[in-house]
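Interim report, section 4.2 (structural modelling).
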Amino acid sequence: MSAAFFILAVVFALALLALLLLASRSSRRGRHRRDGLAVLDSAPQHLCHMGPIRRSQDGTDLHYVANQGGRELAERLRRERHEVARLYLDSLRGDFEQLLRIARVVALLSPEISSSHEYERVRLAAQFRFRFQLVKLRLLFGDAAMPQVAALGEMVSTLAIRMEAAMQALGERATLAADLALSSER
Amino acid sequence: MLSSLPALDLVLWALTTLGGLFLFCLILGKHLDREFPFLTIYLGANLLQTAAQFFLYHFYGFTSQVTYMAVWSSQAVIVTARALATCEFCFRVLGHYRGVWALAIRILLASGAIVLVLTLAFSRDGFRYAVMTLEMASEAFIATIVVGTVLFARHYQAQIGPSALLLGLGFGLNSCLKILNDAILSRYWRNYSGTWNEVAMIGFAGVLVLWVCAMRAAVTEYVPRPELQPAEVYRVMAPQMNRKLAELNEQLVRMLKPERPGP
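Predicted structure of the assembly:
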């Protein structure tokens, strides 16, 4: 056996072992699944702060500060506003992750959801995370990065439409099951 | 002939055989064979293999070609039975969630097959270690499926009962230890060949302990079957979630877009 294959085999086995033990440990600790409406208790919470955040990016204020307080003060204000916007973007990401968690619970409780939907959601989430980092970088360097932000919004829309369709299907099936049960009782 | 084996080997062999027999009887005694049919078949096949090995070693010796061929051929049956028992474990964990199961089984089998093919492709060591390589590839397939199942369950926050968890841990540990043991043997044949068998049997004894605990847990365990939420709950959930998503979407799009002061 070659040294390379030996090392590869040992690393592979140890990595799988570590993954197994880690994943099992977290399962044993009891990651309680929050299902049904309970998941919504911690649904997106940061959206209501969007107004002030958006206003904070208004260039008119900066012009005013630059005229009245000087270029240095305006620059400091711009940096601080970007920092606030960056922190807000992080909170929005938290909201998105929470929505994905809700989607996972819906998937878990949906016997009829096709695998293509799941693939699609995984792809969407990966894309969101990647583009989110791009937007964050652009923000860090002071660029408003509007096209990227718009693309993120589009992704969230797609997710919303998919979840709506899935849940509608679940609702219809549950109703159908209830109707059948009622008719059999009669 | 068997007396020529080191005492430690004989003791370990006896211990693992008794352990396997105990587990087999426990499963049959508690009527768990209906719940774990493939695990029962695997353990039964394992015991039959031990009995066959006993006669082969006794009549043909350890170095005979007949013994070599028979033992390694039976090992193929054992590994196949264990792979089926592993799939049984996967179904026990994710099978209730039909939507997730449909996705998981495809990904797990595909990943396992890729790992199996890659292991066979990258270990070009000729015929000498062919059997060892084949065993390592099969164990890699099983370990990938087990770890993948646990990761899937974690991702979807699907509950894993203690019995399934211990069972999976047993399968995973067994396969990973076998890969490590076989890899070391193939690399350091001269120094390790004496210890290889003992390490394998100690590892298997540990796995048997896990499986006994799993079966004891399965006797009293109540496995809740997930049910669809009533239609009303989904009707309430759907608009709430979509409103949140739509809000998030709108805010993201408008983010950093400066509001122009009105005229």
